[in-house]
Amino acid sequence: MQSNLFDDLKSLKEKMNQDEHNNKEKLLEEQKKEKEKKLHEQFEKFMQNSGVKKLH
Fold this sequence. Notes:
It is a single chain. This protein is 88% helix and 0% strand. The protein is mainly alpha-helical. The chain is rod-shaped, with a radius of gyration of 23 Å.
């Protein structure tokens, strides 16, 4: 009985750690996409302000 409870707690802890890891990865991915979006917008503004015509 006691070892069962321990195993359940252990698996629950592992699952929580995995969830936390997944959440961190999602957060990092979202931050990366946001940075790329901002960089792209800044680049677009720079291109417009510098008077350079689009290459495509």
